[in-house]
Amino acid sequence: MSIDRMVFVFAGFVVLLGIALAHFVHPWWIALTAFAGLNMIQAAFTGFCPAAMVFKALGAKQGAAFK
User: Fold this and answer.
1) What is the pTM of this model?
2) Degrees, nearest 5: CA angle 8-24-20
3) Is there a contact between 10 and 56 (Cβ–Cβ < 8 Å)?
């Protein structure tokens, strides 16, 4: 699996986790979802994604978006 796909899976997981925590634990957990969304927007413009750096360090193969 490439870094790009791993980032998409991780971002989707964080969004769903934030929604579940906001529903079952406390409404302020929606901030986690907002953070994930803002991070995806900034990564689209800058190409910088901390999760991609972690996956690259773990040895994932490079994709088209995050090199």
Assistant:
1) 0.88
2) 10
3) no
In tens, the pLDDT along 12-50 reads 999 999 999 999 999 999 999 999 999 999 999 998 999
Q: What angle do CA 27, 28, 34 make, to 5 degrees?
A: 110
E strand segments, 1-67: none
Count of CB atoms within 10 A of residue 63's CB? 17
Task: Count the neighbouring beta carbons within 10 Å of the beta carbon of residue 21.
Answer: 17
Hey, what are 32's tokens? 């986690």
* Alpha helices (H) in the chain, listed in sequence order: 3-24, 30-46, 50-57
